[in-house]
Design brief:
single chain; alpha/beta; TIM Barrel; Double Stranded RNA Binding Domain; eight-stranded parallel β-barrel; three-stranded antiparallel β-sheet; about 40% helix; elongated
Length: about 525
């Protein structure tokens, strides 16, 4: 059976750039374009040349190797020719190989936003597509608000799509711009459109305002479209766009899509998709969604003891696809619900070889359950769990012993009359029988403790200097000012670029923080092979 070709159009660098808190530089756009080439998408929409200095500079040269380098723009203004429209000419003067123009397809927007007649809007669509094709580029039209427009005036929405197609547009993209359309509506409306524009020339652009962007994209494919627009990790305006990181594995691994369609993404690239997703989060300085489908850290995590026992025997019992096909891995979590099967599986993942009959496993399992009863959560703190396990198995030396610590927080006016808060910490430790005492200041008690602890670690100093704290989370476990506090610290090694989490629990937030801090320093030394 010959499979049909589905085309992936990535708009991370254009529509995704409208995400609150995200602002790409030219250099970041270049790196992200390389990631998209690595994944194997067909089109990379890089932005709007002429709209801002960043996008203009980005389009001074072709930025993709394999994907079609695509510029975004608007159809010409009503009442003027394409040659006399500065915005359109700026797009046509760029290094783009294809041009995707947004066009109004809802008569309400034509009247309110454009202030022209419906016929003038159709002429703008026609003239703009003809100008793009005359320049030797592939032309696409994003029919903005198509689904809302179709529901309000089906004849006019269809007229916009037909005009674009008949003028020579390679792709006519149906946009759910407000993100409020549901899968059953998408299926029905796309089916109606295919009677006028062939599905091999139709695309879908879905927003996630009801949480259905991926489902709407799949519904559109089932109804006939053959291009899907989306973004890496689903970023985008408001609630985001269709998530290509979810769509690609679904299309390649799930029936009936895998039997019916083929993508430009190879099996090798699919096995790299978890890495690509997390690399993108690093570039935009966001923590990865640990529960993201396919690529999340917990996407193949099992906690319940019965499930864990089964999954270690036959993974298919609780996994819908093998995690390695998407570059992820199986995780059997260690928690108070765990049995020995969980424990053995987690130890194996961490590279700790131990016989299942080893009596120390029972003691370790008891340790874990007792600590989690106190408030520890090792499923969120792999590094602290690894230290606990290796200590119970006698595989971690005592690099240093903390003899005491003291923290002082002072709120006062400085020399120029500003109210400031200053933290000072004193830490006394023992290294190889020698006492070291250090003082550190910081913008908070944890920062001050970290500064003091790492100030003089003797022969371990150069190794600890590679580590820095990147995140600090506090959770109150049982309410009230005397509550038990759980602290989770994320750390990062500047040399190896590895990240890890450590945990501390105490009725005193500073003590809980210091526990997690000590674990992080110790884990750094352990991983350095000392």
């Amino acid at each position: 059976m010959t499979r049909e070709r589905l085309y992936l159009f990535d708009t991370t660098l254009r529509d995704g750039a409208q995400t609150a808190g995200i602002d790409f530089s030219v250099e970041e756009k270049i790196v992200i374009a390389e990631l998209l080439d690595r994944l194997g998408v067909d089109y990379v929409e890089g932005g709007y040349p002429g709209a801002n200095p960043t996008d203009t500079a980005f389009f001074e040269a072709k930025r993709t190797k394999a994907a079609t380098f695509t510029a975004f723009g608007m159809t010409k203004r009503a009442g003027r020719s394409a040659a006399n429209d500065p915005g359109l000419q700026m797009v046509l003067g760029s290094a783009a190989e294809a041009v995707c123009l947004v066009a109004k397809s809802w008569d309400y927007h034509v009247r309110v936003a454009l202030g022209c007649t419906n016929e003038e809007n159709l002429e703008s669509i026609r003239g703009s597509v003809e100008a793009v094709t005359a320049s030797g580029r592939e032309a696409m039209i994003d029919c903005e608000h198509f689904f809302d427009g179709y529901k309000a005036n089906p004849a006019y929405a269809l007229a916009c799509a037909k005009t674009a197609y008949e003028a020579g547009a390679r792709w006519v993209v149906l946009c759910d711009t407000n993100g409020g359309t549901l899968p059953s509506e998408v299926m029905e409306i796309v089916g109606a459109v295919t009677a006028h524009v062939p599905g091999v020339h139709l695309g879908i652009h879905a927003h996630d305002d009801t949480g259905h962007a991926v489902a709407n994209s799949l519904a559109a494919v089932a109804a006939g479209v053959r291009q899907i627009q989306g973004t890496l990790n689903g970023i985008g305006e408001r609630c985001g766009n269709a998530n290509l990181i979810t769509l690609v594995p679904t299309l390649m691994l799930k029936s009936p899509y895998r039997e019916q369609f083929e993508l430009g993404v190879s099996a090798e690239a699919l096995a790299d998709i978890t890495s690509i997703s997390r690399a993108f989060d690093e570039i935009i300085n966001r923590s990865p969604d640990r529960h993201a489908p396919y690529v999340g850290e917990n996407a193949f995590a099992t906690k319940a003891g019965i499930h864990a026992s089964a999954i270690l025997k036959e993974p298919e019992t609780y996994e819908h696809v093998p995690p390695e096909t998407v570059g992820n891995r199986r995780r059997v979590l260690v928690s108070d619900q765990a049995g020995k099967s969980n424990l053995i599986g987690e130890l194996a993942r961490l590279g700790i070889a131990v016989d299942k009959a080893d009596p120390r496993l029972d003691a370790l399992l008891a340790d874990v359950k007792e600590r989690e009863a106190q408030g520890y959560a090792y499923e969120a703190a792999d590094a602290s769990f690894e230290l606990l396990a290796r200590r119970r198995l006698g595989e971690v030396r005592r690099y240093f012993d903390v003899l005491s610590f003291r923290v002082m927080v002072e709120r006062r006016f400085n020399a120029i009359g500003e109210l400031v808060t200053v933290s000072e910490a004193v830490v006394k430790i023992d290294i190889d029988g020698e006492t070291h005492m250090s003082v550190g200041e910081g913008n908070g008690p944890v920062n001050a403790l970290d500064t003091a602890l790492r100030k003089d670690l003797g022969r371990y100093q150069s190794v600890v200097d590679e580590m820095e704290l990147t995140d600090f989370k506090v959770r109150i476990l049982n309410g009230g000012t005397d509550a038990v506090t759980r602290v989770l610290i994320e750390s990062y090694n500047k040399r190896t670029h590895k990240r890890w989490f450590t945990i501390g629990v105490s009725g005193n937030i500073v003590d809980a923080s210091f526990q997690a801090l000590i674990d992080s320093h110790t884990y750094t030394l352990l991983k350095a092979g000392l």
